[in-house]
Amino acid sequence: MSQWLPHTPLWQWWGRWLSPLLGPAGRGARESVVSVWTYPAAMERLRALRGLFACVGCMPRRTRRRERSRVSSPVPTCAVTLMLQRLQDHEGDRVQAYCELESALREADSRPPCGVVNRLLAEVSQDLTAAQGVTANVRTAASNVLVALARTHFTLVMAELQSHLKATGDASKETVLIILSKLFSTYAPQCIPFVWLMLAGLRSVVGQVRSGQTLRIACAVLKQWLDGVKIALSSGTQCPWPAMEKEQIYENLHKLLFSVVQNWQDCQEEKDKQAVLGAVAAMLDVLLQEELHREHVWEQLLWLIHPCQEIQDTCRVAKSLTIFLEALQGIDCVIPKDKFQDITSAVFCQLYDDTKQHSEAGRAELTHCIMLQARICPEETVLFLQSQLGDDWEAGCVAALGLLGALVCSDEPMMTEKLPQIVEAVQHLCSDPRTQVRQAILHFINDLLNANAWSCSAWDVVGHIFSEFSRTAGRRAAGNLSAQEVQEEGALQGLCMDILGSLDASVRGMSKLLWPRLLLFVVPAQYTGMLIPVSRCVQALSEREDLTGRRIEDLDPHFVSSMFQGPMLTPQTLLARLLVVAGSPVAGSELQAAALLLMKNLHSRFHKAVGAMWAVEIPLLLQCLEGKEESFSDTAEFEHRLLKFLRASLDTIEDEAWTEALSCKLSQRLSSSASSSGEKSFLYKALGTVLGACKGVLHVQEKLLQHLEEANMEESSEAQGMISLLSHAAESNFQTVLATLTTFASRLCKGWKARISRCKKMELDSRRAHATRSALMLAHGSLALRASKEQLLAHLEGDIVGNILMLYSCSCRDLQNNLALVQSITDFSSAFQAVGDSSCFNPSLKSKLLEILMDLMKKYYSGIPVSPVPFKVVQALEQLSKLKPSFESKDMREMLVLCCKNIVTHPSAEVMVKIRKSQQAAQYLQLQQRSLKALGRLMAVLLETEPTGGFFQNIVHVLQRSMTSDNMWERKRALQTCSQLLAVCEELQRGDACEHFGSLVGLLAPLTCDPMPASRQLAITCLSSLLRIQAKASNRVSETGDIRSLCEGLHACSVISQLQTSSKMARIVCKNFPLERTVDFMLAIKETIRRANGVRVRAAGKWMTTFLQMHGKDICCNVQPILYILRSCTSSAQQSTFVPFLCQAVVILTRCHTEVMVDNFSRLLGPTDSEMWKRIRKFCLQRWSQ
């Protein structure tokens, strides 16, 4: 062998690699390659080289686990050998043995032979790689032995560790990595030459480990070794590697870098993320030391971004780029501008590429990449984003705004200097019409306000929020948007409100920015929806500082500028606006509450006198809105309380000039409000309340006349609002309001019948003029309700009623005029009646009013179209009848007949069918029920004012025809009226009903079997009331229970069941029947038989025969009249149905009163007797004359 070794080129190759790799052999200087075969130390290095080759995969290596046999050695036995033998024989505690072995290896003269080292490495590796059965203490002790062994046999230990790193599925990687860390801490200079091999081994670890402690240890070891490499490269001494090996290190480091980024970018735990970032930063720090490799890193970054253009989900690529950029933050290296521009452009284009469906995570990662670039190169990033703002591509502009907003929110100190530049660039986009851009600008403003409110001095961001809100409201109100556009504009409005409502008053500069600038946006109507967030802001500001006083230099310059450009923001202007919002139910309770809170927090801005009062009263109003107070029922109640609060506030202020100024502001708002506006109704009432508090007569008259002339009374809302204004103003200024009304009414009626110009005639005869007359009539009635007793008695007949009749005489007397007249009569009659019984109304004037009402009743009747006039007339008659002196009996009878004819008799059955099929069915049925109830109340009033019983008889006579009518709807209405009449008699304890007991029972009895269930129920109700009245009048208790217990039988569908139940009721009623009313009963039955048919006739016969069976023997004096009634019944058209009952009745009477009946039958027949009566007469004479 010695002959060819010096001549073999392989030795030269080995010489180049062994000498720098293994270092000095033995104890002397560096030896030649030939001497390797001479000394044992050289053999040790060869074995190490063999292990290193196996580590990098150059040659196969047998597993040490299979080489369990001991290696014989000529070296004498030493302490290390003895301890190793104990380990191999498993004698004693392994931890203790390892500790003793470590101590022995650390002795200065300890250098075990190679055979012992091989056996020791095999034993230690067995404990390190064991999957189970080995404790953590044993592993730690074994690893310490390897560290101690490396003092003398470093290459063998390193080779062993590298083999474990390369092994697949080896469980010892965590321990091996810890050992590598300890080796570097102890033998750093000796570790440096093995860097390229260690990097190759770590690549296998990266491919097998995904998270956890092993990953963090691997990152720490990598960072530790690379820090040593960086020191070695920057120390200025000779490079410890040959040029080829150095390139190999860089190559392995490149591969490891991208392997780490690819495999460890999905780490979830924060500790894992930080470890990976530290490792990547260490690798980049080494790679960026030299220019050549630095360019390679930038190219790799661009290569990393390139896949974004080809895949849909860029989340993983973005994560990889994030790791690189975060690592670059900690490195003192500047990215070339061209490379930075390419990276930024690529990432930004992916961020707003509409062709890709980015996930939320992917979009967040891309955004984070831009933010990292801004930290690394802030100037270039800001300039790039600003350049995108002018792009015509909407998505790019929106993305740039979003990124600028994120930069504003960051805590980077560099952004402080860039903020004015960014704000100025965004400000130029304010007029952009694109929806997404407008939304992005609002989001940017939100970020800006929450981060640096003081930086907004150059741009009125608050004004832009309100302008955008007004802009969206105007576009939606135009009505020419698609459904999607309406939704987008609504979202913008909501965003404006959210931004303002979420502002933090504690942010530096926010107070100066918002106050008092927010007040400018309270008054304009287009900002109504923003009052909720404005209220929250003002409340937050008021809790932090006093808002009443601030020097001019402390105010926002935009506020100062607006104050000089726009109208003056006076306390009255502000209060008028807030009152209107608080009193408008259309706004919603939340907006109303916001207005009230603004009033409470800004009370010192209005008047110094209201602070204490508002502090108490406004929370009560807020409780009403929140529904906390049980007594609060509806919107009208809250409005009443708010107006009462306004009047109390004005009384507290006691400043006539201030009050008149408030009335002027309310008047201005009223004049400028549209008729369809939801707030106008409250404005009328609020202005009336304020005018009521004014003491200046001329001022009140001026405002009243102004709005009387301006109001368009053709619109019902305007007319009702004007009436409200006059009524509220009259509470404290009755004389002034009435005088103003008289003046204005005279203008409308002046020259009505005189010769005037055609133009004036057309003006007075216009629809608006007639509508105004109607409204003025209603206003006079409302004025009467507000007047005190003295004012009413002094002005009712001459001024109020006189003006009403004058206006009516000049009107066209259409439906609107007639309704206004009737309602005004109702109002002033009710007002006059309320002042006391001692007051007497003018009899002639009362008769005149009655005549007018009766004429209206004759003109209208219930039919199609449905007219409310009869109902209103009955209401007016009710109130007018209460006034003294009472009407005469003739007038009362005429009134009763006409009302019953209009309300009970009409409409006919045919018209009723048409009504029920029309669209006005529900309206009519509701109006009909109200009319019937009003008629009942009118009859009650007439009964109270008519002490004699003649009026009740008139009522029964009027209702009799309707209760026996063929029209079932008419019978139902008559029964409802009768039930109300009897209820009144029962309440008043009048005996009128007892005198007509027989007639009423005779009319009600057949109706217990009426085809309509409601009519049957009403008939039972009437009979029950009648029995109770009879019992009270006779001072006795009814012998039987209430007939209401038999109602279920009448609800049955079977006619037989109904007739049986009706017969039971007949027996109950007949037991309590006063016999002196027998003839009345029979006459009423006769009337039913004459006009009715079907089941009602049978029910009448049942009741008649039941009565005769129970009381036939007791009615001797009434036999002849009864016989005459029965005789007349035979000529009825319904005689075929009634004949059985007629015959039964005659038989009952003949048995009870034979002589009287035979005597009557013996008389000669009359010329009008029917054939049926002749046969009955013949039968009775043959049977009972014997």
UniProtKB/TrEMBL annotation:
<dbReference type="InterPro" id="IPR045206">
    <property type="entry name" value="Maestro_heat-like_prot"/>
</dbReference>
<dbReference type="InterPro" id="IPR011989">
    <property type="entry name" value="ARM-like"/>
</dbReference>
<dbReference type="InterPro" id="IPR016024">
    <property type="entry name" value="ARM-type_fold"/>
</dbReference>
<feature type="domain" description="MROH2B-like N-terminal HEAT-repeats">
    <location>
        <begin position="92"/>
        <end position="284"/>
    </location>
</feature>
<dbReference type="InterPro" id="IPR048465">
    <property type="entry name" value="Maestro-like_HEAT"/>
</dbReference>
<dbReference type="InterPro" id="IPR056282">
    <property type="entry name" value="MROH2B-like_N_HEAT"/>
</dbReference>
<feature type="domain" description="MROH2B-like HEAT-repeats">
    <location>
        <begin position="290"/>
        <end position="944"/>
    </location>
</feature>
<dbReference type="GO" id="GO:0005737">
    <property type="term" value="C:cytoplasm"/>
</dbReference>
<protein>
    <recommendedName>
        <fullName>Maestro heat like repeat family member 1</fullName>
    </recommendedName>
</protein>
<dbReference type="Pfam" id="PF23210">
    <property type="entry name" value="HEAT_Maestro_2"/>
</dbReference>
<keyword id="KW-0677">Repeat</keyword>
<dbReference type="InterPro" id="IPR055408">
    <property type="entry name" value="HEAT_MROH2B-like"/>
</dbReference>
<dbReference type="Pfam" id="PF21047">
    <property type="entry name" value="HEAT_Maestro"/>
</dbReference>
<feature type="domain" description="Maestro-like HEAT-repeats">
    <location>
        <begin position="969"/>
        <end position="1171"/>
    </location>
</feature>
<dbReference type="Pfam" id="PF23221">
    <property type="entry name" value="HEAT_MROH2B_1st"/>
</dbReference>
